[in-house]
Here is the input.
Amino acid sequence: MDMQLTRKTKVLRELREWLISIIAATVIALLFQNYVYAQAEVHNISMQKTLAEGQRLIEDKWSYRFNQPEHGDIVIIHGPESPLRLVKRVIGLPGDVLDVRDGEVYLNGQLLSEPYAEGMTMPLGMQFPYTVAPRQLFVLGDNREHSADSRTIGPIAFSSIEGKAVYRIWPLNKFGIL
Here is the structure.
């Protein structure tokens, strides 16, 4: 009887340890996904030729807690500016003056070199030149003729930036750093 009680105690202790380990791993994984890195999916064509619909990305949610976005960053936007999560490229930072002329973007008076952009950049009703306000970003999709971006939804608040797209993980033949 004593041996059976000892065995039962060992089994219960082992189950308790496994349960604690599983719960701790689940909590750590959820915290990691919510606050450090997450997966995002591209849902439209506004970033073609860089990103295509259905591609999966790894989003860095951590670095913007310590650093500001930079020109050219591909960001995930989730805020009041749009009911959808958006993937766009940072074109203008606070204080930057943007202009759109003859289908081209000018940043602080200089023609912006945009080898990633496809199509002509048109104002779409927005008044240019435009100065980016503090704590805001001006973003554009790379597929300029088929993108809902700052030209139509306005500037993006820093607080609406969920993270920075850093890796493409799907499809495998396109795997790599963005």
